Amino acid sequence: MKQSMTFIPTLREVPADAEVKSHQLMLRAGFTRQNTSGVYSYLPLAHKVLKKIEQIVREEMNNAGASELLMPALQQAELWQESGRWYSYGPELMRLKDRHNREFALGATHEEMITSLVRDEIKSYKRLPLSLYQIQTKFRDEKRPRFGVLRGREFIMKDAYSFHATHESLDEVYVKMFTAYQNIFSRCGLDFRAVIADSGAMGGTDTHEFMVLSDIGEDTIAYSDTSQYAANIEMAPVNATYEKSTEEQKELVKIETPDQKTIEEISTFLNVSKESCIKSVLFNVDDKFVLVLVRGDHEVNDIKVKNLFGASVVDLATAEETIKALNCVPGFIGPINVSEDVEVVADHAISSVVNGVCGANQAQYHFQGVNIERDAKITRFADLRFIQEGDKSPDGEGTIRFAKGIEVGHVFKLGTRYSESMNATFLDENGRTQPMIMGCYGIGVSRTLAAIIEQHHDENGIVWPGSVAPFQIHVIPVNIKNDSQKDLAEKLYTQFTQNGYEVLFDDRAERVGVKFADSDLIGLPVRVTVGKRADEGIVEVKIRKTGESFEVSVDELHEKMK
Ligand code: ATP
Ligand code: MG
Ligand code: MG
Ligand code: MG
């Protein structure tokens, strides 16, 4: 590609509002431009990288047995109403009306769409398992779009869904997808970890996030220095000792055991508004659990608190009031459902409550997948201590370290969360009707692009790993007005291209300093400079990553590059 004919608007200055390196570099190197908050254009260079990432994703997904399709981004409200997420997803779901006043959502994710598609066509266990994926634009009205395309409101996601007759079958595909994800992120040149995650608004149980290690990551990972153990800190357990409950504490807590409650029902039950009902935490690891509901004043999104509600509810006003009511200081919190010799586990969300800052997201994400069976009992902790660096890893092997991570991928075992609510059933071998068992698997394609830059840059610009570089070679004539330089550069451009390389040819009439600065910013793996010795057929080769440079004859270069 000739640089004079394409669109690479580079900037010398660091844009003032770009906080993180990848965002700065994507603007400076002419990869993206923001249209409005969280909405970006991908200019030709970024588009090329996206296509490369997508190709890697496609190869690995196909290899894992998934077939590509493309579903609508525009989705009728009825689908989301069936699953219940129309009411629970909250303001992150972009909603709109058509000319007939019918309601729609722009796809934030596609569980509903794919479940409806598959349920209408697949009726027998003989057609299962089935894995499908798409690469498509997603819409989420993020509260805080930031860090450029790392957290956009419109972004590109690969989302895959699998349908199964048995849990064993789901387990098998989950492993395949997990492996595919490891391959994808390795091939993208990323230093990442797969961590135990929280099932969040999607429902389901078994789930892992793929985290790119980076100081700007919004998640904290607790990992073992010697074993495979790695968890989102939200899921990392912690030991605590506790004291028994007192009578007056009991009075402060309302306890009931309703089954299968929705947030609406809970708010009615607690006689508080839906919005102020849930601000809280709960917890379950290996049958050990804590549940605390603390009233707050934030918006409530996705709370289908089904599993929870075989259990008990505590209404404890705000975190501050909780702490006051339980007569404890920060660092103490009152849980229920803890039998006397239970080792209590807690997480980040509890620490948030303790610190009085528990947010809606934190809270809502802790209601799923919890199995609370015991009688409620009010207890008070002493010495609640969260997992810390230097602690022994929960698997008993190695020592805990912390790192920050950017979530680039997420795999879930959804189970029957969507098939049950949306009635996606099949006939099993014995002719019995069963809900399909599902998995879902997401990758932030546009976020991955930025995450790669976050891990691959230096003070002069981006340093692309070969696998995803927009072009492999940058050919730069020092002076395009010099005929022998121009001719040799053009010849190299043609020959490299013919040999299957992707080449960016800086044919602009710019000063060489400008060209080199742009070239460093753009960060292609190899630069070939055609300068003074063009007459002799000698050029300079520079390796972007190492800075190593050497002179070489054109013949030798062709030899090397065969
Ligand atoms: P986050 O915790 O960062 O908000 P998420 O857990 O809400 O992400 P998922 O629902 O798991 O995201 O979606 C699958 C993938 O889509 C994520 O792992 C991430 O890579 C990507 N993704 C999610 N939200 C965004 C966004 N706003 N901008 C860019 N990529 C995103
Ligand atoms: Mg999110
Ligand atoms: Mg997440
Ligand atoms: Mg996620």
UniProtKB/TrEMBL annotation:
PROSITE patterns: AA_TRNA_LIGASE_II (PS50862). It catalyses: tRNA(Pro) + L-proline + ATP = L-prolyl-tRNA(Pro) + AMP + diphosphate. Residues 38-465 form the Aminoacyl-transfer RNA synthetases class-II family profile domain. InterPro entries: aa-tRNA-synt_IIb, aa-tRNA-synth_II, aa-tRNA-synth_II/BPL/LPL, Anticodon-bd, Anticodon-bd_dom_sf, Pro-tRNA-ligase_IIa, Pro-tRNA-synth_IIa_bac-type, Pro-tRNA-Synthase_IIa_type1. It comes from the Bacteria. CDD domains: ProRS-INS (cd04334), ProRS_anticodon_short (cd00861), ProRS_core_prok (cd00779). GO terms for cellular component: cytosol. One of its GO terms (biological process) is prolyl-tRNA aminoacylation. Gene3D superfamilies: Anticodon-binding domain, Bira Bifunctional Protein, Domain 2. Keywords: Aminoacyl-tRNA synthetase, ATP-binding, Cytoplasm, Ligase, Nucleotide-binding, Protein biosynthesis. It is found in: Cytoplasm. SUPFAM superfamilies: Class II aaRS ABD-related, Class II aaRS and biotin synthetases, YbaK/ProRS associated domain. Its main location: cytoplasm. Its EC number is 6.1.1.15. GO terms for molecular function: aminoacyl-tRNA deacylase activity; ATP binding; catalytic activity, acting on a protein; proline-tRNA ligase activity; transferase activity. Catalyzes the attachment of proline to tRNA(Pro) in a two-step reaction: proline is first activated by ATP to form Pro-AMP and then transferred to the acceptor end of tRNA(Pro). As ProRS can inadvertently accommodate and process non-cognate amino acids such as alanine and cysteine, to avoid such errors it has two additional distinct editing activities against alanine. One activity is designated as 'pretransfer' editing and involves the tRNA(Pro)-independent hydrolysis of activated Ala-AMP. NCBIfam families: PRK09194.1 (NF006625), proS_fam_II (TIGR00409). Consists of three domains: the N-terminal catalytic domain, the editing domain and the C-terminal anticodon-binding domain. Homodimer. This is Proline--tRNA ligase. The lineage of its organism: Bacteria, Bacillati, Bacillota, Bacilli, Bacillales.
